[in-house]
């Protein structure tokens, strides 16, 4: 890949709302990692990193304005041909995400002073709780889908080819299934990382709330998102 291709793909990536979000999320958690590393040795730099983290976090909330409607539309368009299991998983995962983004909007408005700042803690808890619920069911959905993809690929490679595909068509179908599996594993990684961050808010504990844990989780989520949203 030459530099021109990379620049063009970066422009396409940053033209997406999710692309901007993953870039700013990287800034947010790199700054948190800097705070952890330089906490006592360079307090001036740590203070600047903290301000960068807070500014990035608030900016991301602004970018996500109206995002809760995505979950509503996904639930509304749930295909009636889906199995009852996948219909239930779609409703639960996207329902949790709707709660997350809706209360995240209210949290943002509280932190910038539009609403009573004293509401921020409550909004943060409800948002994180919905986020955690959504991520659990997104992970379950992806794991089930990965298992089905692997079964389909194994059947194709074993010669169970009911569609009578020729060699090139068979290889292409196997390649597509393999790509879908990789993308779903990236989704699982991102959702697991974000689940850790949500649990740090819902039920604080020394492991989830440690700056290093939060930094690594945030960067795993951001970079998995980079991979999923990067133009092919």
UniProtKB/TrEMBL annotation:
Keyword Transmembrane (UniProt): yes
Provide the protein's localization.
Answer: Peroxisome membrane
GO molecular function of the protein, one example? identical protein binding
Keywords assigned by UniProt, alphabetized? Membrane, Peroxisome, Peroxisome biogenesis, Transmembrane, Transmembrane helix
| TM region positions | 123-146
List, in alphabetical order, the GO biological process terms annotated in this UniProt record: peroxisome fission; regulation of peroxisome size
Q: Name one GO cellular component term.
A: peroxisomal membrane
Highest taxon of the lineage: Eukaryota
- Provide an example Pfam family for this protein: PEX11
Membrane topology classification: Multi-pass membrane protein
Q: What does this protein do?
A: Involved in peroxisomal proliferation.
Q: Give the record's family classification.
A: Belongs to the peroxin-11 family.
What name has this protein been given in UniProt?
Peroxisomal membrane protein 11-4
Whose protein is this, by species? Zostera marina (Eelgrass)
